[in-house]
Amino acid sequence: MELLVASAIGILTAAGLYLVMRLRTFPVILGVSLLTYAVNVFLFASGRLVVGAPPILRDGVSTYTDPLPQALVLTAIVISFGMTAVVVMIALGAYLGSNDDRIDDPVPMDEVIPEDPS
Amino acid sequence: MSLFLVVALPFLGALLPGLMNSAGRQACAGVTFTVSLAAFIGLLTNLPAVLAGELVTARIDWIPSLGLNLTLMLDGLGFFFALLILGIGLLIITYARFYLARDDHMGEFFTYLLLFQGAMVGIVLSDNILLLLVFWELTSLSSFLLIGYWKHLPEGRQGARMALAVTGMGGLAMIGGMLLLGQIAGSYDLSVILQNRDLIQESPLYVPALLLILLGCFTKSAQFPFHFWLPHAMAAPTPVSAYLHSATMVKAGIFLMARMWPVLSGTPEWFVIVTSAGLITMVLGAMIALFKHDLKALLAFSTVSHLGLITMLLGTGTAFGAMAAIFHILNHATFKAALFMSAGIIDHETHTRDIRRLGGLRHLMPITFGIATLAALSMAGIPLLNGFLSKEMMLEEATHTVLFNSPWLVPALATFGSLFSAAYCFRLIGHVFLGPVRDDYPAKPHDPGSGLWLPPALLVVLVVVIGVAPFLAEPFVKLVTASVLGEAAEVPKAYFKIWHGLVPALFMSVAAVVGGLLLMMVYNPALRLWDGTPRPEAKTIFDAIIAVAVRSARKVIHALHDGAFSRYGAIMAVTVIGAGYYAWVTGSVGEATREMQTATPIQMAGWLMLVGATGGLVFLHRDRLLSLILIGIVGLMVSIGFVLFSAPDLAMTQFTVEVVTIILLLLALNFLPNATPVESSVLRRTRDSVIAIAGGLATMALSYHYLLRDAVTSPISEFHLANSYKGGGGTNVVNVILVDFRGFDTYGEIIVLGIAALLIYALTETLLNGPVRARLLNRKPDQPRAGDMHPTMMVVLTRVIMPVVLMVGFYIFLRGHNEPGGGFIAGLVVSIAVVMQYMASGFAWASARQRYPYHGIIGCGVLIAGLTGIGSWFFSKPFLTSDFTYVRIPPFEKFELATAALFDVGVFLAVVGAVMLSLESFSRLARRAHVTDSEHPMDIDPSRENLVEAQKLAQEGQ
User: Looking at this predicted complex, what is its ipTM?
Assistant: First the structure.
């Protein structure tokens, strides 16, 4: 099972990385989402994989999985929603503003006029 | 008055002139003057203690772990400088009130001036060198604002920038030097450092520390080769020049050399560097000054020269040299401030500062003539004026100084410098005031009002008094010298006298004055010679260096930062993989300590779905709608994974977030193109695949390895498990961590979430008010719209579901402390319930029924969470300490009341507000694009049709 989780993290990372390096905003957002899954699962897995021992205290139960990574990942999930929303908004604004959803800057920076020395 | 108040008053007062600006110039200058005067009087209240030889201190611990504390101390040296800064400051404020033109923004000027004054006072009173650095940087910044005060003049901007570049660079070096010094001494407190002369001078770090600190001092005090910024700073209004370059800014470097004198001086390195830099600066500055035609430029280079003189005196490392330096600082401040102000008067009245266009002013401006002549003669070193006394002491010291094994070098150069110094003073008097009255002045010169001439006149009184009766200044100068010397040396016995007998210094003095007069007689040929001699122009070199720096920086940046985001992604991924690989091969991995758990077929099936959906996403990502469905599957599988591995809270959160994320992406896709075109080459895609697969393998290997090994140390969550119920009153440990143990983190996180939502709102507003608005209005949907956008079935269903979902949300919220659930999840569930209403009946209908703005809900949530945290202060507990109790209200069972629940309410509200505000912003864009938005809950309503029909029939009937 450890191998399954580890490979899932690896596959999510690989797919996320590949999509992040695409040229349009939408696949990049999808890629970032995949990377978010990968990172969250990775962080969560740092509490190791335990089946059937949720960190809800019960009388007579003594094994619980590590609750701390869960707490961290919980907020990470919510925050990543906020960040995704911001990025999507930026992408949308860029597209609506220029009618173009390319992610790379088309103008080489050298053509930017240097600042007036005065 | 407390030293803190003396330092803080100018800073606090800096707010006032800006506020008083509309109250008029008089009020503006008046309030500035009052603030400065208060600080000045506050300083004077400490005079008795200083005279008694006590060390006045004030201390507040700021960051004790870093050795950074707000410690101030006042000894003779600090008092002397603070007196100059505040005293001359008062004169400058008066002068500036009358100097500045009507168009100049006076409030701004005085605000900058007070900021600068506060920073300077801070430097001279700091007992902690880190604190001193803070003030040091503040002087660089505030002097930048002052020098560039006339923003409309290019010279002003360039001069300010050059001053900032040079002094800022020196400041950076100084930070390094001070940190080294603190390392050596083991403390950042000056009082400790000053006790450790031997320790510091024997340290191998002494030379680097010395070099770095001197770099800071030399740049600030315009010593060769950093002297060039000072004349360019003359583009500032004259009051600024008079203040910065007589008593304050440029004296900061001198002050620091004097302050550090007991521990840094006396070594060969100090002697050679400081003395020769001072000597070169003195001679060079005097020579250039003589041939400058701009009155202020002449004074600027003469300042450079005199600073060199003081530096040289400090460099000799003898007690007599230090005393002469202190005395000359005092004298220079008086006559130079008076001269700058006189130059300002001349500029103000004749509208020119070009010496070649002046002359004969003594009849037209007799008062100014008197003031400037006395000050200039003092600078030239004429007896009965204070400049003579300290110059004699300097020459005396020079005759005893042996540099580079030559007993002649220093005395000869000192005399040579003094000769030029005398010459430019004579030139100033002769070419500006003497000679025939001209008829081509740009304006008709006359003496100004008393507001302009009184401040320099007061200074000239000092010049004469000290010059005639040096014994009056002697005790004070000796007191200051004693505090400079500390325990390193005895205060010299020498008395301050006008007549010392026929000593070598007198002959040198006479030679300098006579030589200066002779030089003036042959001024025109000398000027032609000077103009004919090629010499490097400092500004050109500086500009060239800056240009080279900009070019090379641009080269580096453009190579790495060419605007191609996908490239940055690749570079970053490769770097991270490389660094991880390096760590992997250089580190060691322990034995596996955990058994691999077997996977059931169902789990395999889940994994297959996850992998299949991810793979599908990569290959089918060009079809954007399909990829949304696939990413939904991935999110679902991750949630189910969380369920399996004992994380019910996470599963619920992931699942609900998944829903809102998909809605969000759908809303976005409404505007974005539906497909991604094929653009990258096969080579490019291969490259990306290789990087991606390498990254995937790396994370997989890493997670696989640690999943099979136990943590090296016992995790801190053991504490959480043990104390969750006892201390936090909840059995759901994850929730207790969120709202209690790590409540402060959560508090920060809801704030971040709120900020993100507000950012989205702001972006939407900007888009809707910008050029995008027109584009949206003209936008035609690229696909035919559904005829039934708000289907009856869905509308009815969401209405019925709404209360149920709200109740579920409430339930999840309430049970959160003990069972899976809590504010985050409840907030997401409730948001989904509300979003459903938007989806079912459209934006207009839903928002018309919404009573509270989402911004308010976010703010309310953050406020409730914050107030809950603050509440614990009233019980003398730290922020966010939670408490709980059990109450029983019949007929209910006994239940728990926890303050953490109140905090969770804040979390809940913030999450609802943030999610709703983001989604609402997206739909606002959509609304702009499709104007036809029905106000009715659904598109097709049989009863409405009937109503319309009935109305039609009724109309026809009439």
Answer: 0.91
